[in-house]
Amino acid sequence: MKTHVQTENQDNSNFQHLQSIMLSKRSAYYVKSESSSNPVSAEIAKEIFDEIDTEMLRLGYVMSAHLKLSLKQLSEESLIEEAKSLIYTLSEAKGDLNNFVTLHANFPYTAQDRSYHDNRAGVIFSHIFGLNAKPTSLQVKLPCGCSFDDQLFDLSMFNACPVCQHQVEGLSDNVEGEEQGTVEFSLNDNIVKLSNVGLASKADLFEVFGNLLASSTSVTAFDKEFVKQVIIAFKEEALEYIPVSIAHKEQLCFLTGVISEHLPDAIELMRHKFKTYTDVLRLAAYLSGFDVSLEACKKIRFKLSRKQRKLVMTLLDRHMLMEDMIRRRGLFLALGRYLHVGAESNKHPHAAHAFNVLRNDPKSIKTFNSKKEALLMDAMGVQQTPKGTIPKRDVEIHLHNTSLKVTIGDTVGDKTLKNLLAICSEKHESAESSEKLATDLKERGEAFTALVSLLSSRPGEFARNIDLMLRIGDALGDDYTESVINALEKSVVQELKISQLFQLRAYFNSRVVNEGYRYFIPKGNRAKLFYLEEDKRDSLSQANANKVSLCLLAEINKRLSQKESLGTVYIDPALKNIVLPLSMRSMASSLSLYPRGSRIPLEKDADILRMFMYWKGEVDFDLSAKALDESWNTMKDIGYWTYWDCDPEDTYSDWSQDEWARFSGDIQDAPLGAAECIDINIKKCADMGIRYVVMFVNIFSGGKFEDYNAFVGVMERKDAKVGELFEPSSVSQKLDLVGESKGCVPLILDVQDMSYFVCDMDSSTRADGLNSSTESKKMINIAKSTEAMSRTNPTMYDLALANAVARGQRVTLVDKPIEEIVNDEVVRHEIDFRFDMDFAMQLDTVMGKWLVD
Question: What residues contact 176, with CB distance under 8 A and at least 6 apart?
Fold first, then answer.
């Protein structure tokens, strides 16, 4: 019977990607086959569905009635095809079908202990110093070239050479494509997570497609590929679901590029949506095989077809702000040379003129930033040096009888200007100096007023600089601070996107608390943390922070109250743990996609958290972990350089006093594919005072993540002695290792709270030989920053509460009908709308409908 649903390698078809992302976003499967007039017989259908159900249970899934009913309408041939595709999609999501073998074949019963460590070291030293074994001993020689006494290692307990740790013929298991996991759950006293798989219709697929394009925030690379595959699969039909307004420019340029490649006759649909020169540059970059974000594009070798060149030239031949071209002058000049813009001056005069000015007279282009910087310097009374830098020095300020110490040159973000606060020192020794001070203050005040007016013309810039303006205003006087808040209330807040309102409000709600450090995640395809050991910004008063927060809240309530009523609303308090998806660009594809900083609870009866990593290739991937206390101090590390210090007679249940984790062993070369695991004993960690466990994966030498098939994840186990090494049904999270990095922190376990933080942040891009010990400082900084995100970033609960207050008639935090007494009678109000975890998991809906105006 296995022939019916046995998984097999699927081609990288359009529909395979669509099915994978619908499973991730809707927990549903898209049936691509059409219903048949001659459906499969009941007898054969029962046989096939029995196999499907068994396979799905093994993987941790059950089939919904709607999906089963849809599959029953297919012919026998189509049903078998869909069954194979369904199981393949589910297996891929959980990380099944791979050669999931560890160095120690009997892990966790055998692990990297002292005995193995000493024996391996002895063999290596013998080889180095030319020491031969005793003549009476039997020598084992493996194909890798390693030889050793046959009494040292029981080769039946290893999946790779125990000395060089390379996979070798005749020793390494190869279970790729074979079933793993336990189906007899009655015999498996372990945690089994069963997820219901529903039916995804074509309408559902197009809904996700439209939501991703309508989002005002960035989306993942996996989402972009989904959009592309929808266009390829459904062609003109998909065009009907493109939203009228595409707020995010990267989505606009990516979509236009896809249409240009696959539906060139429909390109007119997109022309009018381009408003800036940067949009056109993004499009040209995509068509040339580069990323539309332009963040990693220092140089672009443009390569366009004749039709694409014509499209780009037409889009450039418009009256648009030339300051866009100054920001990326080098890339625009390269594009102009490639397009031979000068030779096209008759056909495209505006484009030719713009590039001529950019090339020959760039200083004539007055930019918004140059005006802002000049006013900012005048408002602070700081003179720029010829090179545009500001010397860093501490100065004492005596202004309005208030003394404070600031650092000139305290720069974060916008090079030398953003978040810079400096007031020149003045002494009140004479009437002349007092008069000079008054004149200086007046000039600064005038410059500050002009700065507020200028930034008000661009709401996004105002929002990015409001913290700085409030700090400068505090130094100049209360009237200036009030002018910032008045400008925000009267002319700026109405123009901000609702996603920006939530983000800015969360920022000011936590702004008055100084964490003692600062962190930034610059825009890019992968998240890389910039961490500052100190926060040198001057504090904001609680009163001013509250004024800004209330102004933003009032605007949020005003906009939401204009939408349709939600009736009786339920809000799940667990939404406080899920961060709003305001920047998803750098997130890797995963089993369950959560925004970075979200806190995901573990099952209450989980005793063991098994961290795992899989890769395939002739390269050394390493898995390690770092244990931290409440104050972020390192307590323990575990990885290839540590070992289980135990008695040879110990069993798995005999955890030694200081043993908090167990490592499966290091494999340094895996052409067949291999895994490494770390079992975290949650109770022992708590008893030892361990608060956080930071997971770290890296390539020890050679290559980058994007060069290999690799992923990481966690299994929640009640009893690690029961079941198999890899139990798909216990996998609670799995995410791909992608990008140009060589090190990544996927998640952080909070032992005390029985949860883990979603991190997915890169640690290193170049260095070899890394582990959780060498990367200790970076890992701690990443962990602290991720934990801070969970407390300070806006959450799904904030979104739900704002909508409930503005649009709900009644609100409850308990998922049951509300009863109230009206005219001495009990009136029962059923729940009309639920803000629950199902709502939170549909990130595309949140981004495309709830976080747009």
Answer: 97, 98, 99, 672, 673
